């Protein structure tokens, strides 16, 4: 049996209020006032024009407080509408002027001012109502006898019966006098829907609403609708949005009774339920019962993704609005945690840290796909001040070292060279805005210069050894460095390029030296795709490496084109398309039988079946990823290297690193994964 979780009396809400309402008979508006006052309601509505505030000519009546009450206006016992009664409390404001000042007002004095110190007061009180799509203004005339006129004191109230509005609507009320001597009063009243009315049987629009319960059973959530078999109703699940229209998730027209099952992984705080009877002009009830559910908040952060759009903008994808604080930080190789930038850059547009409720919820390196594996680069932070003043410092674990500097840190010792590299364009710009910029400058060449003498001594010592020992040493060194792997792919789209970048980054964590055009765009642009590929292929094969052909629908189409025509077709291609350029020398290796042992093929599960790869390329092993990762990694090892017992462990490591990119490619944020639709028969809803 399901365990009750929330009991929601029609249109789930927090502690529905049960009201017992007074009934008014008839359709005419009316007014009445406190004892001693006289009041009158104008027969027709007036224009809602409050006008400007004018000085009071003496004592005047002014609204001081608005009080509302819900009533029922009934034509019959069971034919009623919800109505809003408004009481306007009045007081005397201002004071009597001295007799000599009286002439100053003359005929301009308000008609409510008769004889000084011994006169009754009159006022025209306006009540203005707005409740989408209705708006109206009514005029109440009030007269207060002189005996009740006491300066600064309340004289009573005038009551208006009543303003009709829709169930569940928001009514805004203003009150002021004509002419207007003071700022108008305002009040907002949220009307209940059928769940809060004890007399719902008297309101026809409430008769057909179903009874809805939400209960939990283990990891599942049940929506239980206890209605008769003849009752037809609509049920919709949607993501409520702070900005923009709701995002529908699931909708069905059903006949009661029904039990709808939701998986706990589908819960997010903005998941709401709308239910209504399938009748003309029926009342639709909306509820959002998961706003405070801890599981819903965990699911929301698990679904959130950071995406770098350009060098100056980023996007946090999430099903619901997230109150979070973003900050840009940096991390040294092997360093933890991520350290804040000092001084900081503007954080409105880029981040790697996202915090909510003082807890780190999300951390991503937005430039990982474009930069490749983590390198021992130096981050230069440029800050810009007034009058084009700028300063540079190098980020280090000890802080940001100004350049140039006489400090003893590594960046300070190399400061002159770093500034030269920055001016010559050898540093990569990661970020740029009005406050400053962030640059990544390579350090490997300076490390090589520093150790040049050490390497020379090692080479002289190695030359003294015998040829056999030298060959063994070279073989051991190659094994330690790992086998070279050249990764070729067709740039079908930006999403597939990110997937390739993730695979290459994961393979770099193994004893493999991976080359891919994504990480060599500068050399690729300078040399051209054909020259760049030929140089990489020759170097890889000379070192005993392997060329990996990563097949996709676009790659298969290009291969078929070459096999059919012998030349590349005229289709548009970008300047970085190395795969198209590579076919000119890849195909001869396969046609002349030189490919086995030097080439392997691969494709991603659910994107391409191995049988779709042209038969010529299936003369070498073709693996599907990630299902055949162990065999794929085994094929990338040195030809004579023994099978390592850690192969399965490494395959699991690569699979974990690849999985987020696969999820993002096959199930972009904001779309449900197959088999995880909301409710029964997800995807079949209308």
TrEMBL record:
GO terms for cellular component: plasma membrane. Keywords: Cell membrane, Disulfide bond, Glycoprotein, Inflammatory response, Membrane, Receptor, Signal, Transmembrane, Transmembrane helix. It comes from the Eukaryota. Residues 482-634 form the SEFIR domain. GO terms for biological process: inflammatory response. The keyword Manganese does not apply. One of its GO terms (molecular function) is interleukin-17 receptor activity. Residues 662-686 are annotated as: Disordered. It is a single-pass type I membrane protein. Residues 676-686 have a biased composition (Gly residues). It holds the Pfam family SEFIR. It is found in: Cell membrane. The chain crosses the membrane at residues 451-471. Residues 1-20 form the signal peptide. Homodimer; disulfide-linked. Heterodimer with IL17RA. Heterodimerization with IL17RA is independent of the cytoplasmic tail. Associates with non-glycosylated IL17RA constitutively. Binding of IL17A and IL17F induces association with glycosylated IL17RA. Forms complexes with 2:1 binding stoichiometry: two receptor chains for one interleukin molecule. IL17A homodimer preferentially drives the formation of IL17RA-IL17RC heterodimeric receptor complex, whereas IL17F homodimer forms predominantly complexes with IL17RC homodimer. This is Interleukin-17 receptor C. It comes from Pan troglodytes.
